[in-house]
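To: structure desk
From: M.T.
Subject: fold request, one chain
Message: Could you run this one when you get a chance? Sequence is below, nothing fancy, just the single chain.
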Amino acid sequence: MKRTLSLFLLLFSGPAFAQKKAPAPLKVVNSLSVYKNACRQNPDKQLVDLKKAIPNLQLDIRYATKNNFMKQVMYPQARAFARKPVALQLQKIQSELHKKGLGLRIYDAYRPYSITVAFYQKASDKHFVANPAKGSKHNRGCAIDLSLINLKTGKELPMPTPYDSFAPEAAADYAQLPPSVINNRNLLIRTMQAHGFRVLKNEWWHYDFVGWQNYELLDIPFKDL
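Reply: Done. Structure tokens follow.
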């Protein structure tokens, strides 16, 4: 009996039976004054209006319309913001592309944290939306969804899929595509990578800025920026 009791205590008093520590609550800045104070201390934390900062930039903010995978208007305004270093690199990219007769089309940029929560709550399939448990790089102002356009026509260059597609062809390395489409996709990837962005492996249009860890999650609405 003593031997059995000792074995029981050994099994259920060790690390495997120890109470797990509760995760720390997610830290999200939702105060405009706190955000502005952070910007005064570090100007790089400023969210820049991309349309004002980048010449000939084309916006197609799908979440300000019903033309998105949610089939709902998620943004009250069709605007795009990003942290200052992100905006500066996008300026340089736009200048480089202009020499080739090309430009950027922005689909999404900074996304308030509350919108990420709404995505998750309203989505019928949770696999296709970011889990708000950790927040997203869009919430930090350090992720951009974008494509390339012909400046003369204003039309998007042929890409593997439409924006926000869940098809396998949306993967950044999907190979079974026409050579011209692969060239367009790879031009975008090379150009963005040269300026400190990394493509998301399953979304050719999504780019995260290197150093995103240095920026807080935000829930500041567009109207306050």
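Reply (cont.): The helical segments are 2-12, 32-41, 50-53, 84-98, 113-122, 179-193. Let me know if you need anything else for the meeting.
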